[in-house]
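Hi R.,

As promised, here are both runs. First protein below:
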Amino acid sequence: MNTPEDLLQFNQQWAENVKASDPDYFNRLSQQQTPEYLWIGCSDSRIAANQIVGMEPGSIFVHRNIANVVVHTDLNCLSVIQYAVEVLKVKHIVVVGHYGCGGVLAALGDASNGLIDNWLEHIRDVYRTHQTAVDSATTDKERANRLCELNVIAQVGNVAETTVVRNAWRRGQDLTLHGWIYSLEDGLVRDLKVTKDASSLK
């Protein structure tokens, strides 16, 4: 197991390697960030937003939590969305879930998980809404994967209902929402085709 000291040494070696191959890299990176994307993803340690879509650091603004949930009382997430939309002027907000999500699996189970059960209740709400579609899956894996997809779709809807996003659309700001899902088994991201833009305003 690597110690914290190991990580600091790895960082020093990494920084030296980067500077050797691109002497101006950190100077460029230290300038004001201008990402066009806000990525709302899961906290799962196996998913690195920039890496899996082949983007450089500075190109994606990232918010992560258990099971990529967007809750209208979560000031952390809402503050990230507001900063991304109003200050960074991102053009895209992408909610990205992943198959095999531990939060979704826990939400489908009956076990008591402590404090996190309060958070998982948001996913259970999605399950209750779509129980027939989820339970019609033929295997437990397919059942969980279906709920992973439905959870992403629900969270895109929640982003679309935030005052920050709705106000941006009313101002005519160029902003589009997307729902994607990532597979750890093959490294591919799939578009769930739930794109929303200003035309979603009622």
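And here is the second one, sequence first, then its structure tokens:
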Amino acid sequence: MKLKHLSTAMILATLPATGVFAAALDRSGQSMSAFFQPGNYFEAGITALDPDVSGKEAGTSATRRDISDMGEDYYFPNAALKLQLNDKFSFGLIYDQPFGADAEYKGQNVFVSDSSNTILAPAALAGIRQQTITTGINQQVTVAAQNLLNSGALPPGATLDQAKAAIQANTAAMQQITDGVTKTVDAGLKQVNGLLGTGPTKVEVDTQNLAMVFGFQPNKNWNLYAGGVYQTIKGNISLRGQAYSIYNGYDADIKETGGVGWLAGFAYQIPEIALKASLTYRSEVDHDVNIRENIPTLPALSLLGQAAAADAIKNSSADTTITTPQSVNFDFQTGIMADTVAFANIRWVNWKDFSVQPYKFGQLSKVVGPLPVVGRPNGFDLVSYTDDQWTVTTGVGRKLNDKWAGNVSVGWDSGAGDPVTTLGPTEGYWNVGLGVQYSPTPQTFIAGGVKYFWLGDAKAQTGAQAGGDEYVAEFSDNNAIAYGLKLGYKF
């Protein structure tokens, strides 16, 4: 079934909004389709997403308030240039923004600071308050008993224990000591609680990726390719609200930094039947960055008897390594009848081995992690995932005439684990998509597409809860709409 020059194989290169709302931080889907176009080829596109992600406080949260839409709209561009240098060699540049996050909590909930927030969970703080008051009273009784002994008011030979008993038997003296210690402790707690942050929890992470690809075609069927990748990452994260306890007020500023990686793969095609299959591996990319962190609540460690640790964390500094994950893409298409192709994409991303632990964040986690209420003796991460991501997209594309073509698709994403981080509380998706392509000339086209996502329900947990069953909120019945536009030129 030989297809015409403007084949429906071109449809797959113009399908916008391929990744968009995948698991964890995955966005673009890292397509290689432009590199497989015949001859010289250029494309540029943009994708936008409008998510609606809302939920309700749950689990360990003391309240059960609604959480309004925390998913922010975002867009990202992409572009590719492919040159066929001769019959055997090709070269390509592919630009996209593969990973990212954009979210902000609003309203009144455990992810937005308000005047009722406390430095620790209320139950834990009440226990510390009572223990501190008891210790303070015992210390004051000892001081008062020593002063009583020194005054000579007790019979000769009286012991310190006898003096303590005399003080404790004095109701007025004990009330004065209790009131004084309680007032001092409560004033200290008020001061510590005043260190908490204001405003909402929010996150913004952006990456850029430029791949330089070299291809070798020993014959018309095979294409072997490999290349280097330069990637940048930057972001800002603010944790606010009762859910984050002592981290309520934490800010991290990830200045833009770059790292290098590589990709390699092979493709097989039979042009006469529009058959194409490709397998592409992309490596991890390491980013070493000195994240600017602000933890205004460090003085609260004095409540835990860790004042020295607070000073050590405040004065420390070191690089944090952020490693974006390795991935594998498998793409397949074949003609199924005249002017019609079926296509499929399978993507695997190694999120299970991904985590981010900014240096000072990690140091503080090693201090509070051993507490019974936390139960993480080795500390914990800001962000981590428990599962790898699998994404599958299938569909059919059809050339309607010399100028118009279209496609429909269905997609599924596994997610990266549930419970999942509060900074991205969805667990995979199902989607349906529709794409249309218009070609005013055989060399040019413009394509548009839309996808509707049914986002998977998820339980949201803080970094201190990661790896366990505890969570602070539930998100359900959410959705997103993605739009894409792409221009292409063959020359």
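A quick note on the second one: Helices lie at 9-13, 122-151, 160-169, 171-193, 307-314, 359-368. Let me know what you think.

Best,
J.
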